[in-house]
């Protein structure tokens, strides 16, 4: 695809799953372990987007914005730990 070509020109390894609905044969290999890590990062980014302070970036200093990110990470981790503890 065009995206894989552009990424290849910049020496970026594309680990994008094939669109099974496309119907065209494709020999692209996807590293499943790397893709699972990518999914975890994308999911965390989506959780971070739920925090309005971070998303809208009301803070004027990098230090304050960074602190809000750490608070969001701590909340996400705490919720995950509490959820595992209940099970």
TrEMBL record:
It comes from the Bacteria. This is Transposase DDE domain-containing protein. It comes from Bacteroides pyogenes F0041.
């Amino acid at each position: 695809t065009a995206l894989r070509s552009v990424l290849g020109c910049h020496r970026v390894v594309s680990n994008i799953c094939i669109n099974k609905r496309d119907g065209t044969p494709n020999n692209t290999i996807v590293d499943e372990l790397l893709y699972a890590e990518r999914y975890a990062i994308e999911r965390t980014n989506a959780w971070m987007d739920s925090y309005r302070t971070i998303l809208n970036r009301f803070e004027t200093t990098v230090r304050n914005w960074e602190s809000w990110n750490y608070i969001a990470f701590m909340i996400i981790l705490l919720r995950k730990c509490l959820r595992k503890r209940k099970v």
